[in-house]
TrEMBL record:
PROSITE patterns registered for this protein in UniProt: HELICASE_ATP_BIND_1, HELICASE_CTER
Start and end residues of each Helicase ATP-binding domain: 190-364
GO cellular component, one term: nucleus
The organism of origin for this protein: Dendroctonus ponderosae (Mountain pine beetle)
SUPFAM superfamilies from the UniProt entry: P-loop containing nucleoside triphosphate hydrolases
Coiled-coil features, chain-numbered ranges: 740-767
Subunit structure and binding partners: Interacts (via N-terminus) with spn-A/Rad51.
Chain positions covered by the region annotation Disordered: 42-123
Pfam families, sorted: Helicase_C, SNF2-rel_dom
Name of the molecule in the record: DNA repair and recombination protein RAD54-like
Domain of life: Eukaryota
Function: Involved in mitotic DNA repair and meiotic recombination. Functions in the recombinational DNA repair pathway. Essential for interhomolog gene conversion (GC), but may have a less important role in intersister GC than spn-A/Rad51. In the presence of DNA, spn-A/Rad51 enhances the ATPase activity of okr/Rad54.
Chain intervals with Basic residues compositional bias: 105-120
């Protein structure tokens, strides 16, 4: 094996940075082993060139390229075409998967049949105002429309603007359209403006950060403040840097919310064709709003730096979270007094990232990185580990609170739950599904774990991998290989170098446990009329899905890094407007950032990223303003595999982020995995759900959930009928499979235990107990037959008895040992009679077919029981049959506990926090803006 590519200079320095970052103590270092790998992967992806490995079996899936500026005429790029040039558009969060995936792959021609000759969907192009005639024509149209509207409503009632707090004026129409929290956001931006300060608008994804910025600029234009520090009246020339995919979304929003601004796009998808230097100079002179990408900032840095800008806005600003990345350094060089960052994920992996973001918005405010790391990042991190001492915990709490106070004035972050009084968002349910591997997958996974490669890593590497870049390269490759097996074994088996052309059966969905689950989900959702966003990290995996969707007759769209930027907005609009598209295939990095995809109400995140924000960003595409249907999100993981460890790391990072941004008392970190954990696979799928056991309280108890009716869904009888018919068909196929319905068994066991306990307590005689059990069996038989629609079945044995007052009396007698044998006999006979009298239509069958896998539904709800929801519960129950071993409520996993510290410990911790703040102040070098 040749790993020469691993040891390139860039990676070397990245690794040592990573190590320094965490090297606070030997113990912490041990616990950070995996984190270093992630840092290495994340950072290396920011920096080109990528690592080159040539381990045959571990060669990664084709990488998802940058959401580049690569143009193509087709909506369906040629799968064999070379990857777009990375220099053309590094505008999205890189992930470690890409690091490995970004290898030059020798792809076999026609390896995967994806019948890419589909007719491209119609695209709706948004034009910018770079051309004077376009701009004037648009203004003309706008004024004409305005006049017509004014004539329609009669003479104007007076001013068209509103005087607001603090001297701010805003156009009435636009202001009235804002939600209350958005108005607060505009005031906050206004305050920052008056202080000539920058800030980070960190509202959760989909709450309208774009809209708030535009409304603020509009208000600024109306307010025309005159300041000694500023040479502009109103809004001066402004740059907005964003991911390529959302350039046209920005233009659209400006045209809609503030049509008078001149918006020009500095990007090859814009209308300007000539020299970019000229566009920049003219834009600056005309006080235009220049919308561009992070890649373009790197490319035209020289030209952009020739001018001063009034405002610089970074959309999805977390892209500059690596302080030493070229793009971070470049945006900081742009000359402007007002730096605003927009991001729904201010902190993703570690506190250094937070430092990097604030060092852009408020240069120097958090001191220098070394001091910040020593006095803030490290203590917070150390105190968060499960094995931290009380002193470390208290110090972490104090320091985190201090840090929160320092950044608070410059950070405005509202979560959807905070603004639920202002906006009406439908219910969202998010679950993590632990899927079983197929037999083939399991065998391949195990074989790989026992391979010489993994043996070497565990044997030699475990001791020295922290200091050995070469070993780190091996480790990354091994993890990539395991992830590929989890996604689809063919990604691993049929890699380049394999002699057999696997065209025919390549990507068969039945060979992947997760794909089987996806297949079942899509089938049901199609019938229910739900529309799905299906996110995966790799482009080949998307192609496998593409082939699957074609085979099964789904109408779909696809967007990945090879989709031309110019056609992306068109695809998004097409999906949102044309309900005949059932599925939108997206790579997490291109489709997961910034876009509005409210046309979908179901989201599947097929493979986890190390970075929790990447997955969160993806899920938020559907659950945002504009969504009017309940949204269900499923994150799929292969139980017991490296994917489960990745999910644990996600939770770990999320809790660290919450500690600083939301609640410093969040304390529920856990130890990171060691190497042996990563390279292991429990024998039984049931035993493999480690995460579900750690977060027991977050487990989705399907039956309970149904009883509580937590996921109200569309209550349309037609859909329910269609769903039943489908359920019948699926259940027929399911009953042939020897899958274990874990939840049902669990609940049955619980009930049995409860009854036995009761019987024991009441000291029934042996004979009574026998009768009791017989009766119980009879009732259970009824239940089995009445799994759906049965008006006799449902509930526990006690409930069945309590249905009539007579039975209730008998039941009480049994439990209080007062029953006579004759009464018991009568009761038993009644149970039989009831069974016999059941009509075929209500006997637990759906449309005449027995549905064994379904949970029951009652037509006559007994007292205190809610009518079950008619939507997802059937689905949830089917999961178990399709190899889902457990499910967790993601939000509930993230809820951290709180701990109290003793007074003495607290005061010591507070002292540490004061010292940290002093150190930070000393290291500050605040920059005064001079025009
Ligand atoms: N006051 C409003 N009235 C109507 N629509 C709104 C309003 N505010 C926001 N929206 C709509 O909500 C959607 C989400 O807004 P926007 O894209 O600005 O969110 P965001 O916070 O920037 O999201 P992300 O972090 O994902 O980029 C958009 O379609 C936008 O038009």
């Amino acid at each position: 094996m040749d790993f020469s590519g691993v040891a390139n200079q860039e990676i070397q320095s990245l690794i040592s940075e990573g190590i320094q970052l965490w090297s606070t103590s030997q113990e912490v270092l041990e616990q950070q082993a995996l984190k270093e790998l992630e840092i290495l992967a994340e950072e290396a992806r920011d920096k080109q060139p990528p690592v080159i490995f040539d381990l045959k079996k571990a060669s990664p899936e084709e990488h998802e390229p940058n959401s580049s500026e690569h143009e193509s005429n087709s909506l369906e790029p040629d799968p064999n075409s070379p990857e777009p040039d990375d220099d053309s558009g590094s505008d999205y969060i890189p992930s470690d998967a890409e690091l490995a995936e970004r290898q030059p792959t020798r792809r076999k021609k026609g390896r995967l049949k994806t019948a890419s000759k589909r007719k491209p969907a119609a695209t709706l192009k948004v034009t910018d105002d770079a051309l004077e005639e376009n701009y004037q024509a648009r203004l003309e149209q706008y004024y004409t429309r305005l006049e017509q509207e004014l004539q329609a409503v009669g003479p104007s009632e007076g001013k068209d603007y509103k005087k607001l707090k603090g001297g701010l004026k805003a156009p009435k129409d636009a202001w009235n359209k804002l939600y209350e929290y958005q108005k607060e956001g505009v005031y906050w931006l206004w305050e920052l403006h008056q202080r000539s300060s920058g800030g980070l608008l960190g509202d959760e994804m989909g709450l309208g950060k774009t809209v708030q910025i535009i409304a603020f600029f509009h208000a600024l234009q109306y307010s025309r403040p005159i300041s000694n520090h500023c040479k502009y009246v109103g809004l001066g020339p402004t740059i907005i840097v964003c991911p390529a995919t959302v350039i046209h979304q920005w233009v659209k929003h400006f045209h809609e919310w503030s049509p008078e601004f001149r918006v020009v796009v500095l990007h090859q998808s814009g209308t300007h064709q000539g020299q970019k230097a000229k566009l920049i100079a003219e834009g600056n002179r005309n006080k235009a709003i220049l919308i561009t990408t992070y890649a373009a900032v790197l490319k035209y840095k020289g030209n952009l730096c020739e001018h001063s800008w009034h405002y610089l806005v970074l959309d999805e600003g977390h892209i500059i979270r690596n302080p030493s990345a070229k793009v971070t350094v470049a945006v900081k060089e742009l000359r402007t007094p007002h730096r605003i960052m927009l991001t729904g994920s201010p902190m993703q992996n570690n506190l250094t990232e937070l430092w990097s973001l604030f060092d852009f918005t408020n240069p120097g405010m958090l001191g220098n990185l070394a001091v910040f790391t020593e006095h803030f990042a490290n203590p917070i991190l150390q105190g968060g580990f499960a094995n931290a001492s009380p002193m470390q915990e208290a110090t972490a709490l104090s320091v985190a609170s201090t840090l929160k106070n320092v950044i608070s004035p410059f950070l405005l972050r509202r979560m959807k739950t905070d603004v639920k009084d202002h906006i009406q968002l439908p219910h969202k349910s998010e679950q993590v599904l632990f899927c079983s591997l197929t037999e083939q997958q399991r065998d391949i996974y195990k074989d790989y774990l026992m391979s010489e490669h993994v043996n070497n890593i565990l044997g030699r590497g475990a001791k020295r991998w922290r200091s050995d870049n070469f070993m780190k390269g091996h480790l990354l490759m091994a993890i990539t290989a395991l992830r590929k097996i989890c996604n689809h074994p063919d990604l691993f088996i049929h890699d380049e170098g394999d002699d057999v052309a696997p065209e025919e059966n390549f990507g068969n969905y039945k060979n992947s446990g997760k794909m089987v689950v996806v297949s079942a989900l899509l089938k049901i959702w199609r019938k229910q009329g739900h529309r799905t966003l299906l996110f995966s990290q790799g482009r080949i995996m998307l192609r496998i899905f593409e082939a699957f969707l074609q085979q099964h007759g789904y109408k779909y769209l696809k967007m990945d890094g090879a989709t031309s930027v110019g056609s992306r907005q068109g695809l998004i609009d097409t999906f949102n407007q044309d309900v005949s598209y059932q599925v939108f295939l997206l790579t997490t990095r291109v489709g997961g950032l910034g876009v509005n995809l409210t046309g979908a109400n179901r989201v599947i995140i097929y493979d986890p990223d190390w970075n929790p924000a990447t997955d969160s960003q993806a899920r938020e595409r559907a659950w945002r303003i504009g969504q009017d249907r309940p949204v269900t999100i499923y994150r799929l993981l292969c139980a017991g595999t490296v994917e489960e460890k990745m999910y644990q790391r996600q939770v770990w990072k999320q809790l660290l982020s919450n500690k600083v941004l939301i609640d410093p008392t969040t304390n529920k970190f856990f130890k990171s995995s060691d190497l042996f954990d990563l390279f292991s696979l429990p024998e039984s799928p049931k035993a493999s759900i480690e995460t579900a056991n750690i977060f027991r309280e977050s487990r989705v108890k399907i039956m309970e959930k149904i009883k509580r009716n937590e996921t109200p869904d569309v209550d349309e009888s037609e859909k329910v009928r269609a769903m039943r018919a489908l359920a019948r068909k699926i259940s027929q196929s399911l009953t042939k499979e020897p899958a274990i319905d874990a939840y049902r068994l669990e609940l049955e066991e619980e009930r049995q235990q409860k009854l036995q306990e009761k019987a024991k307590l009441k000291h029934l005689t042996a004979q009574e107990l026998v009768e009791f059990n017989r009766l119980k069996t009879a009732v259970r038989e009824d239940e089995d037959k009445n799994t759906l629609d049965g008006d006799v079945a449902g509930g526990s044995f006690e409930e069945a008895l309590e249905r009539s007052s007579k039975s209730a009396a008998l039941y009480r007698k049994i439990t209080t040992k007062q029953i006579r044998p004759s009464e018991l006999k009568a009761l038993k006979a009644k149970g039989r009679k009831r069974r016999c009298s059941m009509s075929p239509d209500t006997s637990g069958k759906i449309d005449g077919q027995l549905v064994k896998g379904l949970v029951k539904r009652e037509t006559k709800a007994p007292p205190k029981r809610h009518k079950p929801s008619k939507g997802d519960y059937i689905l949830e129950h089917l999961f178990s049959k399709k190899g889902v071993a457990a499910a967790l409520e993601h939000e509930s996993v993230l809820r951290g506990g709180q701990r109290q510290q003793s007074l003495k410990v607290r005061s010591h911790a507070d002292e540490k926090a004061v010292q940290a703040l002093d150190a930070l102040k000393k290291s500050r070098r605040l920059k005064e803006w001079k025009w």
